[in-house]
Design goal:
about 5% strand, alpha+beta
């Protein structure tokens, strides 16, 4: 099947040249695309019974493309537009897109048209589209009673509204901490210079990432570190408590109405893991595997803290990041302040483009005349093996009202002959020197953007971009992190003010130092995964008390009284019960990387096979099949276990 019309090749979207144009652009891109989808559905209803399966699915592909366009544009713009009224407008458009998607999958007459199709003669991709479409109808509840379908519709619409409010509270709640200038002792010089003393003889920190993480890492003042961490972990509280309770209840009711034991079972059905009980089993498996090394390294942190404070009986998150840095400096000869002098943001950004260009056969052409929503944003047209294949936007610094974490958003899914894949990387990095962990994060998140573009060359929008099972989507990005640890790769862009490349010996020590703490880091990930899973599995009365209990069971660091981490745990919205996917994907990522030659990470044959067999298919095949096609065998946990126990 080919949806590509005759005519000129598609070109990137034209964004407004100034702030005044965004209202009209949102209407055109969101409302008009939804109107187009509705008109296409009306035509499909009228003509569908007389169409061949192939033609009907092609019509559905047009509907899905229009709906995806509206959903993508409204989602990203609600998180990045500088104007709050426009963000609210985008949120309303996103609600309309979700409403239409729900209405379509609950439409019994529309379902009957698809259920009556004869798949004979359809190719493999078309059959997969039909199978997944029928699955969508079933999972929406199209076969339920009229009353149940209406309730499911109400539940879906309310979840969208509550989820948006939950995310907005996290995005907007930037807390400010006023400190004595002496409490910045230990911070890098450029950090101190960036936080001048105010009229009240105090300096101000915010709970944005570029302030919080350097402070927790380098500040010597324990009380100040605790104050900053408390503020960070109390963002969006108490406002998000009631919203989260409602969101959990809505999901539980939806799953029950659909005949599932609970939300985790409903959510896991379409993931690699398959069932809710398997989430619990996986969390427990990793928890046990990381127990010994995690406790060993946690105890080393505590011993180092006790040298400064002999009365300390435990160590928690207010101290662990700082003392991990102290140990890496003292025992591994790795000083993060020295390391960061090699990672100036503009050079890192260009280095990332150069590395992924060489690895995947991509060319990035600065789209200097392309308008965007903020002057911080840079745009690039992407060529794949010499052919124009998409456009990317990099929005990498914090500002008021912007998404507070790091993520890749779609602006448009790619459809061959119809539209180019376009995506944006939304992060919150400093403008000057970066810590190496931030460099690793940038590589990780950019991996999603590469996946979006490379997998955006599809006939079926259903398969376009990062369209694999959700518990696989992190694996390609986690694997790309390995290139941010290779000495030769880093030396290609990491230079200090004197122009000296980062020494290979230093990178080797950094790698050894990074191995410290991976056990307790895995346990913390399992704590997050347990919060995600158990809050959705069980009816919880006291969210804070439950989170504290889960931290005691799964983390190796104790709960800090007076904090409410769950209120700003944004993954509870998008990932719902599936935060385990980060570790599940890491297991696969370590196995994928085992196929590469560590002494030649740019070996063309391996890199292109990976690009073409794992990334390019998008959602055309199950993730396990993609991995097996590349590795020549099913994926295994062995490489991950060796890494964890090394």
């Amino acid at each position: 099947m080919t949806t590509s019309p005759s005519g000129p090749a598609p070109v990137p979207l034209t964004l407004p040249p100034d702030a005044d144009g965004w209202n009209d652009w949102l209407v055109e891109r969101c409302d008009d695309q939804l109107a187009q989808a509705r008109a296409l559905v009306d035509a499909l209803r009228e003509n569908g019974p007389d169409q061949t399966a192939s033609d009907l699915l092609a019509s559905w592909n047009e509907v899905s493309t229009a709906l995806s366009n509206a959903a993508a544009a409204s989602s990203v713009m609600s998180n990045v537009l500088p104007n709050e009224a426009l963000r609210t407008q985008a949120e309303a458009a996103m609600q309309e897109a979700q409403k239409l998607a729900t209405d379509l999958t609950l439409d019994a007459d529309l379902h009957a048209i698809f259920a009556g199709l004869d798949p004979t003669g359809l190719d493999e991709d078309a059959r997969r589209v039909l199978e997944h479409t029928l699955r969508d109808f079933r999972r929406a509840g199209v076969d339920r009673s009229d009353a149940d379908r209406q309730r499911l519709r109400d539940l879906a619409e309310r979840q969208t509204v509550v989820g948006q409010a939950f995310a907005k509270n996290i995005r907007d709640d930037v807390r400010r901490i006023r400190l004595d200038p002496t409490q910045l002792d230990g911070l890098p010089e450029d950090f101190v210079e960036g936080h001048p003393v105010g009229a009240d003889d105090r300096v101000e920190l915010t709970t944005d990432y570029p302030d919080v993480y350097p402070f927790l890492t380098f500040a010597r003042d324990r009380a100040a570190r605790r104050e900053v961490l408390m503020a960070f972990n109390n963002r969006a509280w108490p406002a998000n408590d009631d919203l989260l309770r409602e969101l959990l209840a809505l999901r539980a009711e939806q799953a029950t109405l659909l005949g599932y034991a609970g939300w985790p079972d409903f959510d896991a059905e379409v993931k690699m893991i398959g069932a809710g009980d398997e989430i619990r089993a996986f969390i427990d498996q990793i928890t046990e595997a990381a127990a010994a090394s995690g406790a060993r390294d946690r105890d080393r942190l505590l011993a180092r803290l006790q040298r400064d404070d002999p009365e300390a009986a435990t160590i928690d998150r207010a101290d662990s990041t700082h003392y991990a840095e102290v140990l890496r400096r003292e025992e591994y000869d790795v000083d993060a302040q020295q390391v960061r002098t090699y990672f100036d943001f503009p050079a890192v950004r260009q280095g990332l483009l150069d590395v992924t260009s060489r690895l995947f056969g991509l060319t990035y052409l600065p789209a200097e005349d392309a308008p965007s929503w903020h002057h911080d944003v840079t745009a690039y047209d992407v060529e794949l093996d010499g052919t124009r294949s998409g456009r990317i936007y990099l929005d990498l610094h914090p500002r008021e009202g912007k998404f507070k974490h790091a993520a890749q958003f779609s602006i448009a899914p790619g459809v061959n002959g119809v539209q180019l894949p376009e995506g944006v990387l939304v992060c919150n990095f400093p403008r000057g020197l970066m810590e190496h962990r931030e460099v690793v994060t940038l590589f990780h998140e950019f991996g999603h953007l590469v996946h979006h573009v490379v997998a955006g060359q599809q006939d079926w929008v259903r398969f376009s971009g990062v369209a694999t099972e959700w518990d696989f989507v992190e694996a390609p990005s986690q694997m790309l992190e390995e290139w941010a640890w290779d000495p030769e790769v880093l030396q290609s862009f990491a230079t200090n003010a004197a122009g000296e490349a980062i020494p290979a010996a230093l990178v080797a020590r950094m790698r050894a130092a990074d191995d410290f703490g991976k056990g307790y880091a895995a346990r913390t990930q399992m704590f997050y995964a347990a919060v995600s899973y158990f809050l959705h599995r069980d009816e919880v009365e006291d969210l804070t008390a439950t989170v504290a209990e889960l931290q005691a069971a799964y983390d190796l660091f104790p709960f800090i009284e007076g904090t409410h981490f769950h209120a700003s745990f944004g993954h509870l919205d998008g990932y719902t019960s599936g935060y385990y996917t980060y570790m599940w994907s890491l297991v696969i990522a370590k196995d994928l990387f085992s196929a590469f030659d560590r002494d030649d990470l740019f070996a063309a044959e391996t890199a292109r096979r990976y690009r073409d067999l794992v990334l390019a298919p998008g959602g055309r095949r199950d993730a396990a099949d993609l991995v097996e096609a590349f590795l020549g065998r099913p994926y295994a946990i062995d490489a991950f276990t060796r890494w964890l126990n090394h």
